[in-house]
Amino acid sequence: MNLIILVPNVVRRYIASFPEATNNAYKYFNYDNRVVDERVPRMDPVSHYKGPQDLSDMDYDALVAYAQHTINPILAKYSGSVACEDALHAAIRSFNNGLFDGKINASRYNALLTALKEKFSIQSNVENYRHAKKEKPERRVHPHVLEQMGIKRHDVPRERDVPKTVPKGVHHIVRDDKGNVVIKKRK
Questions:
Q1: Following CA atoms 58, 60, 47, 105 in sequence, which dihedral angle do they give, to the nearest 10 degrees?
Q2: Would 83 disulfide with which of 12, 76, 88, 112, CB 3.0-4.6 Å?
Q3: Spatial separation of the C-alpha atoms in residues 180 and 141, rounded to whole Å
Q4: What is the pLDDT of residues 13-65, one digit of tens each?
Q5: What are phi and psi for residue 183, nearest 5 degrees?
Q6: Strand (E) or helix (H) holding 139
Q7: Where do runs of H (alpha helix) occur along 95-155?
Q8: Which residues, at least 6 apart from 127, have a Cβ–Cβ distance to it below 8 Å?
Q9: Quick check: pTM over 0.85?
Q10: Are 173 and 183 in contact, with CB atoms under 8 Å apart?
Q11: CA-CA distance, 99 to 66, in Å (whole number)?
């Protein structure tokens, strides 16, 4: 039993021999006896500052509506997505005296940009041009080519008579409704 009481005293004396342990400011801090409610409400006015956690869905909806009205029509003519990004950047910096400036993270920005693109329904001409399927005009087969191949015009099948065994996307020679022999791709 004496050994159990002796060990903490030996350790305490050993630690007390270091100047860092004796010459410190531990006695000025009250970490061991903390008071849970040490602040008294003073009825101060509510701060106008809103942190990122204080912003609501209505605030974000107002930001997207403001950004929708600030879309540059000249920029939107060429690229709708770039115009939406530009309007959202400007709205974040300027809406409600910079309320959102520095408070929107990447995931929230992507959600706001998606919402803005959904509201911005006009697609730009460049995007329409890029995504439009370019249909090539039908190429007519000259009668001399048919003669060289030894094929008569009435032997070429009509488009509706092409057998289903021809795979889709394969070019073949058919006769259209006007009687012209053309090269077409099976749809």
A1: 150
A2: 76
A3: 8
A4: 777 777 766 677 766 766 666 666 666 667 777 777 778 888 888 999 999 99
A5: -100, 125
A6: strand 139-140
A7: 106-119, 125-131, 143-149
A8: 79, 80, 81
A9: no
A10: yes
A11: 13
